[in-house]
Amino acid sequence: MLQGKNALVTGSTSGIGRGIALALAQAGANVMLNGLGDPAEIERLRASLADAGGVAVRYHPADLRQPAEVARLVADTEQALGAVDILVNNAGIQFVSPVEDFPTERWDAIQGIMLDASFHAIRAAVPGMKRRGWGRIINLVSVHGLVASPFKSAYVAAKHGLIGLTRSVALELAETAVTCNAICPGYVQTPLVEAQIDSQAAVHGLPRERVIREVLLAAQPSKRFVQVEEVAALAVFLCGEAARSITGAAIPIDGGWTAR
Fold it and tell me: What integer pLDDT is reported at residue 184 of this predicted model?
């Protein structure tokens, strides 16, 4: 489906980004990984993705907090793989605090990694996409780009901003064959969320099952986690020709959360 295409996926050494990188490789795209982790584990991931898709898979350790490194990540991917045809801005962090106590350095880090880095990556990748006459930009947002929750002011602000960026870029590129869309998952079952379940269970003195249903999934009507594979399949679909007229969309995959 995506044979001959080259993808850059930020935050792809774990969680949703890892799942999307795997799905893109299995669909035939060469992949540049980026993210944090143990070097040996990252190398095992790189090799396993290459084997799974029979494609080229590389890794780049760019620090997304630094605009120059984001630009270098795009340039190095173009050099290593030949192009950035697919850009998936997935990297993200979270911090929870009342707004009056929110550490300014945490605010800056969240905006920098999720909103600013996405802008810098798009800015660097778009010229090549326009020149080649094809491109797919996918921003992994969150249901929190569409609705808010208390104590997550920085995360919600960055995600709302990312949807605005998605729509603006889509309009600029509407007459080209480059699309830009946002995927907005609800709670996804990732290792990070699994750790949150254990932490919340300890804090509230509740069994794991009640934490899942009454705390994490309280706003998610399906009462089940979105699976990484579901998000990855949507990303692959958005990269295909059947999705060429989908641009500027913010697509929920949230078990009905935003239907309320």
Answer: 98
User: What is the token pair recorded at 199?
Assistant: 């932490």
- For residue 6, what are the β-bridge partners? 30
What's the pLDDT score for residue 78?
A: 98
Q: Is the dihedral of CA 62, 68, 72, 74 positive or negative?
A: positive
Token code pair at residue 182:
């946002």
Taking a C-beta distance cutoff of 8 angstroms, is the pair 260, 148 a contact?
no
Name 230's Cβ contacts closer than 8 Å, sequence gap at least 6.
253
Residues 6 or more apart in contact with residue 81 via CB below 8 angstroms? 6, 30, 32, 56, 58
In the numeric block, which tokens belong to residue 66? Answer: 């630094």
Distance CA 99, CA 104 (A): 10
Low pLDDT (below 50) residues in the chain: none
So what's the pLDDT on residue 161? 98
Domain boundaries in the chain? 6-186+227-252, 189-225
**Which pLDDT does position 197 carry in this prediction?**
87
Report whether 82 contacts 58 (CB < 8 A).
Answer: no
Question: Which is the catalytic residue, given 62, 120, 143, 155?
Answer: 155
What number does CATH give the domain 6-186+227-252? Answer: 3.40.50.720
In Å, how far are 9, 54, 97, 180, 181 from 118, measured between CA atoms?
11, 28, 24, 12, 12
- Confirm whether 155 is a catalytic residue: yes
What's the confidence (pLDDT) of residue 201? Answer: 84
- What is the Cα–Cα distance from 129 to 71, expressed in whole angstroms? 15
